Amino acid sequence: MTDRIPRSRLVAPWVRTRLRAAPGAALALALLVAVTAFLAAALPRAVDRYGDAGLRRAMESAGADRVTVRMTAPQPAFGLSQQERETALRGAALSAYQAEILDLTRRFLPVDPGQSSYGVRTAEDEEMSESWLPRPDGLPARLGLAAQHGLAEHSRLRDGRLPRAPERVTAATAVVEGAVTTDTARDLNIEVGSVLRFPGVERGPLSVRITGIVEPRTPDGAYWSADPLLRTPTLTVLAGDPEMRQYWKGVLLLPPDAAPALLGTPMDPWRYWQPVPAVGDLHAHEASRLQSAVASLESGPGRQRVRAATSPDIATSTELDEVLAEYTRLRSAIGPMVAVAAFGTGTVAAVVLLMAGGLAADRRRGELTLLRARGGSLRGVAGRLLAETAVVVVPAAGAGLAAAWFLLPDARPAHAVAAAAAVAVLACLALPLRAVAAHRAVRVHAAREDAATARPSRRRTVAELTLLALAVGAVVALRTRGTSDGADASGDQLVSLAPVLVAVIAAFVLVRLYPLPLRGLARPAGRLRGVVGPLSLARAGRASGSAVLPLLALLTALTTAAFGGSVLTGVAEARDRAAVLTVGADARVESLHALPSTLAERVRGVPGVRDVTAVGISYNARPLDGEQTVPVAGVDPADYAALARRTGVGAFDREALAAQRSPGPPESAGAAEPRESAESPGAQDSHGSPQPVPALASPDVAERYGTRPFLVRMEDGSSVTVRIALVRERTPAVSGAAFLVVDRSALSARAARPTALLATGAPDGAALRRAAGTGPTVQIRAEERAGYVDSPLQSGAERVYTAAVAAGAGYAVLALLLTLLRAAPERAALLARLRTMGLTRAQGRRLLVLESLPQSLLAALGGALTAWATIRLLAPGIDLTTIAVPATTSPPGRAALHTDWVALLVPALVVVVLTVGIAVVQAWWTSRRGSVRELRVGDAR
C-alpha cells in the first residue's frame, strides 16, 4: 500500500504576486492617483480659503463704521426724575446693558468683545467760540463730546493724565475733565490745560478742561474707527456753500461717569452699544446665514430679544448687511467661472484615470482571457482586480488628501474628503469595469475595432443624444440668464458644465466624422508611389475605434484652456478700461480749488510725463438755474481732443467743440484766453445776442436738455449759454455718467481756472506727488489698475482658475502619452518587421509621424473650433464686470467675453507638435534597439 502524499494548499496571494510582477505600473498608478486626489481635495479647500480671505478683506475695506452693529437709545425720558435720568447715563447702567447685548449678539454673530465699545455721545456738534481753534476758511470748529468706556485699555498716554470724573457728576456740573487724541491735539492746537466751553440749558456753560493727550493703541481697530471722529478730526465742507468753505469737526473724550453732565447741554446725548463682528471667525460659506442674522438684529427676532433684555427704546442700525450683500454678489459672479475650470479639469482627470485603467486592461488582455477560459467568473476576476487596485489606490488617495490638508489648512473638511474619495473610487473601478466590459463573453480572439470601419451602437447613439440635449439646455440657459440666476444665486452647475458638455458633443461628432475622410482617401492613396503614404493612412484607419476618451480629454482641455484664457484676457482689458475711465489719463492731479499756475510746468518736468492737459471742472454747475447739478469741464479743444484720442475715451473732432469768436483783430497764437467777466459776450449773432457755446455731453444730459440752447450757472455765479453738439458715453475729465464739456475760452476767468491736470506717459508716482505738493490729490492709472485685484476673492479665483487650466493641460498631455503608449509595442514590432523588408530609418520616422498626424490634427482643429464655438455661444450670457472691478468702482460698461486667439491656437499647436515629437522620439529609440526582441515568436503585442 503506497502512502498518499498530501497536496499543498499554499497558494501565493494574488495581490502580492501582481504587485511584485509589475511594480512599475503600480507605482505609476499610485503617483497618478496621489496627484489627482491632491488636486481634487485642494480645489474646495483653496476656494474656501480665498473665499474667507475675501470676506475678511471686504469687512476690513468697508471699515469699522460700516460693519459695526450700532444699538442706540435716546436720552432718558423727560418723565423720569432727574436722578433717574442721570443714573441711566452712568457707567454701571451702561455696562449692564453691554453684557446683555454682547450675550444676545453672540447667538447671531461672532463678536469681538475687545473692540466692542459703548458709552454716551452727543448727537449735535457745537460751534466753538474759542479764537485759538483753527478756522481754515473763517468758519468756527464744531466739536462733540463722547464718554466712551475703555479709554485706558485702548490708548497710551502721551501727555498729562487720563481724565477723571468727580465723585458725583450731575446735569448741573459746571466743569469736567477731558482728553483728546494726538491727531486731534495736533490739528486743533489743543494742549494739556486747554479749556473749551459748551453752552448749557437753564444753567451756565459746561467747561471741559483737557488733562491728557492719548495715542490709540490700534488706530484701525473698531474701538477707534467705528466713529472715526473720536480718533481724527476732519475738514468738512459747509453744506450748500457755493465757495465750498471748510471747517474742522472733532470730538472730545470724557470719562464714562461724566456723561450725566451732558444732560445740561443742548447737544442731545444718546446712549450707544456697538458690538463688532469678529472678522477672523467669519466664513464665506456662512454669508447667507450672516445676512439673515443681521436682518434679525436690525428688525427681527434678534432686535426684540435685545429690547426685552435691555430697553424698549433701543434701535439697531448697521451697513453690515450691505457689505455682505456686495460680497455675496461678487462671490456669486466668480463661483460659476471657477466651476467652469473645475468641471473641465475634473473631466480631463477622470478621462485620464479611465484611460489608465483601459491601458492596464489592454496590456493584460491575454492574462484575463486565459483566466476566463479556465473558468474564472466575471465576479471573481473583477473582485481580484478591484482588490489589487485598491491596495495601491486607497493609500495613494489618502496621501494626496493629507498633502492637501497640510498645505491648505483652515478649510472645511467634508468637500475635500468627498473629492478625494471620488478619485479613489473611480481609480479602483476603472480597471475592473473595463475588464468586465471586454471579457463578458469567453473568447480567444477579439474582433478588430478599426476606426475606418467602426459602427456606433444604438446605446451609444442614445447616450450621445442625451448629452446633446443637456448641452443645448445648458447653452440656452447660460445665454438667456447668465452664470447666476439673480444677485444672490451661486450659479447653476449645469450652466457651468456647458463648456464641458459642448466639448463632449464635439468629441462624439468628430469620432463619427473621422472615418469618412479615411475611407475616401484609402483608394487614392493606394495609387501613390512609395510605401510610406499608403501604409501610414492604412495604419491610421486601423487605429482603435474607441478613441472617444483621448479625444474627449484633448477637446475638453483645449476648450477649458481657451475659455479660461479668454476670461482672464477679458478681465485684464476691463480693468485697464476701468482704470483709464477713473483717472482719465495715465496720471491725474486734482484739487477742489484752482491749482497754482506753475504746477503744470512742474508736472511736465516729472520723469515719464509725455504731455499735460489742463482742465477746469465745476462739479456743482446748475443748468437752467435749477436744483440739479451737472459737472462742467472747461477745456482747450485741441489739447483735450488729443487726450481723448490717445486714451480712447470719447474721442471727438476738436473743431466741433471750439467756441466761435466775434469778428475783430486777429488773435495771437496759442490757446484762447477766458472771458474776464461773466457778462462779457462771446460770439454774437446778427442781432447782437450771445451765440450758444457748443458742448460735449453725456447721453443722459443730452436726453434731459436736448439740442436747444440753455443756460448753465457756474459755481462762481457766472453763466454760459451752451448747446449740445456732441454726445459721448465717457470723457476723460469726469469719471461719472453725467457731464458737460465746453471750450474754456467761453467761461469766466474764475470758472476757467484749471482744477485738474491730466498727464499721459509713464509718470513716476513718487516724483509726481513731490511735484504736486500736499494740497492736490494724485492718481496714477497703474496704481488704480493694481488696486482692482486687491480683493483675495478675485485674485484667489484667478489663481485657482489658472491652476485648474494648467492641471487640465497636464492631464491632456498625459492622455496623449497614454494613447501613444498604448500603441507603442505594436508600432515597435511593425518597424522591426518593416526594417527586415528594407524600410530605412528616415522612412520609419515619416511613417510614425504620418500615422499620428490624422488624430492629432483632428484633436487640434476640433479643439480650436470647439473652443471658438463655445466662446461665441456662451459670450452673451457672461458678464466679467463683477470679476474685473470692485463694486465701488464705476464699471466701464459690460465687460463681455471675447476670443483670445493666443489661448485658442497655441494649445492646439502644442498638441500637434507634441504628437509629432513623440512619434519621432519613438522611431529614433526603436531604431537604436535591436529587432530580435520585437521579432520573437509568441510575444504578445
Count of individual beta strands: 21
- End-to-end C-alpha gap: 52 Å
Spatial extent as radius of gyration = 39 Å
Low-confidence stretches: 485-491, 662-688, 937-941
Q: Give the mean pLDDT.
A: 81
Q: Determine the structural class based on helices, strands and strand pairing.
A: alpha+beta
What kind of oligomer do you see?
single chain
Overall shape: it is globular
Strand share of the residues?
A: 5-15%
Give a concise summary.
This protein is α+β, with helices and mostly antiparallel strands.
Verbal overview:
The strands form three sheets. Strands 1, 2, 3, 4, 9, 10, 11 and 12 form an eight-stranded mixed beta sheet that branches. The protein has 29 helices and 21 strands. Helix 12 (378-407) runs antiparallel to helix 13, helix 19 (548-583) packs across helix 24 (781-787) and helix 19 runs antiparallel to helix 25 (792-836). With 941 residues, the chain is an alpha+beta fold. A hairpin with a 7-residue loop joins strand 7 and strand 8 (206-216). Residues 485-491, 662-688 and 937-941 have low confidence and may be disordered. The radius of gyration is 39 Å and the shape is globular.
